[in-house]
Design a protein that fits this description.
The chain is built from 15 helices and 14 strands. It is globular and about 60 Å long. The chain is an alpha/beta fold.
Length: about 425
């Protein structure tokens, strides 16, 4: 079969809805200044879908530094990969500051989060090593694991009995292969909002010989007393061997980093192919990240405002009887029951009649009969935004339960 013909007949789990979804449910265009209120299809909407936890995307100090750095350096400097010609004092300064903040000896700056996680796994693990990972790990972890040429075992999400069994399997296997074991989990799971049980996982180190890599994309900057992430929240930062954070969430930027012991970070510097053969992160992004990190460290009121909104939103929804699953982070999933058809009509009603914009997840990403509306609160939202949104959700839930969304077919959106 011609490979293109195969693609035309099998568009993939999400791609099968391309015709109906594009431009509205998928690839929507939010326009205007980044914030709680943006424009969607020509009108203002209250936006709950931006990973801008601390409101830094449009913080005046951030905007000023971004503009000044772009004017001074342009978007090209430094040219080349860091190993060859792309190294600067600012890149090194950012790495040092990141390492200090998360309590590690060293950190290695990465161009992108997704690419970075894939490459860390590929670099660290050889064919004799075994990976043990959470079943709800992010796609970047799954893709990194798929590159692994050795064995891998998956444990049921946050199930410590399941983890123990997989560690036992891994220990038996590595006794033969003479390899090592890498456990991978997320600090905060980005879809469900619950935290990886880092405090319980690290206790297994007393019984099993393994290293742990934590993807804390949604935890860095938002979790912990100082914002140093989920390990700080649990008080186990010193027990985490490799800590991974991105700039795309609380930092509202581009880039990522991995932090750990100096010898491990140096190994990654000299062996991580996605960085060795990729252009260095442009100077304005590095200088902008330094300013964002400074604000995270020096303005705890940003995190306090975030949690005021989180607590009001989640507490209010729970009081109204909504199912938020097991979230214990800012990520706020709202679970409803209904068909894909009903789910699309719920979202259209929210956007068109209530001017509330949030993301929806339906089958086949989650089981049939379930709908997931995902809200991301930020420090820029107000308590009035929360109150209005809770009322809107109560209205659409009533309509859903009354069957008012089941009378129309899959919503066709006029573009």
């Amino acid at each position: 079969m011609d490979i293109f013909e195969k693609i035309k007949t099998d568009k993939g789990n999400i791609g099968q809805y391309q015709k109906q979804a594009h431009g509205y449910f998928a690839f929507p265009k939010l326009e205007g200044e980044i914030g709680p209120r943006m424009r969607f299809r020509g009108k203002e909407v209250l936006t709950w879908s931006l990973n801008n936890y601390l409101g830094l995307a449009n913080h005046p100090e951030v905007r000023k530094v971004d503009a000044e750095a772009a004017a001074e350096w342009g978007m090209a400097y430094p040219m080349g990969a860091r190993m060859m010609s792309g190294q600067t004092n600012k890149h090194e300064e950012l790495e040092k500051n990141l390492a200090d903040f998360v309590g590690k000896h060293d950190a290695f700056l990465l161009n992108y989060g997704y690419q970075g996680m894939v490459s860390i796994i590929d670099c660290i693990c050889g064919r004799n090593d075994v990976i043990v990972y959470d079943s709800e790990a992010h796609a970047c972890i799954i893709d990194g694991v798929r590159l692994h040429m050795g064995k891998r075992f998956v444990y049921a999400h946050n199930d410590m009995d399941s983890l123990r069994k997989q560690l036992e399997h891994a220990a038996k296997l590595t006794a033969t292969t003479k390899g090592g074991i890498l456990v991978i989990t997320e600090g905060v799971f980005g879809m469900s909002g619950d935290m990886g049980k880092l405090d319980e996982i690290v206790r297994f180190k007393d019984e099993f010989d393994f290293r742990i890599l934590v993807d804390d994309a949604h935890g860095f900057g938002a979790m912990g007393k100082t914002g140093a992430g989920t390990p700080e929240h649990f008080g186990v930062s010193d027990k985490i061997d490799l800590y991974f954070g991105t700039f795309a969430k609380a930092m509202a930027g581009i880039g990522a980093f991995v932090a750990g012991d100096e010898d491990i970070c140096n190994y990654l510097r000299y062996n991580m192919r996605s960085q060795t053969f990729a252009k260095s992160l442009p100077m304005p992004m590095v200088i902008g990240a330094l300013k964002r990190l400074e604000l995270i460290r020096t303005k705890p009121e940003l995190r306090e405002r975030l949690w005021t909104i989180v607590n009001a939103l989640q507490g209010g929804l729970k009081t109204m009887g909504f199912n938020l699953g097991a979230t214990n982070s800012p990520v706020t999933p709202v679970y409803l029951s209904g068909s894909v058809n009903e789910g699309t009509n719920v979202v259209m009603d929210l956007r068109e009649n209530y001017n509330v914009f949030c993301s929806i997840v339906v089958y086949p990403v989650i089981p049939k009969g379930q709908l997931l509306l995902r809200l991301i609160p930020t420090a820029d939202h107000t308590l009035e935004d929360v109150e209005y949104t809770i009322k809107a959700f109560a209205d659409v839930r009533k309509k859903l339960e009354d069957g008012k969304y089941s009378t129309t077919q899959f919503a066709e959106v006029v573009r």
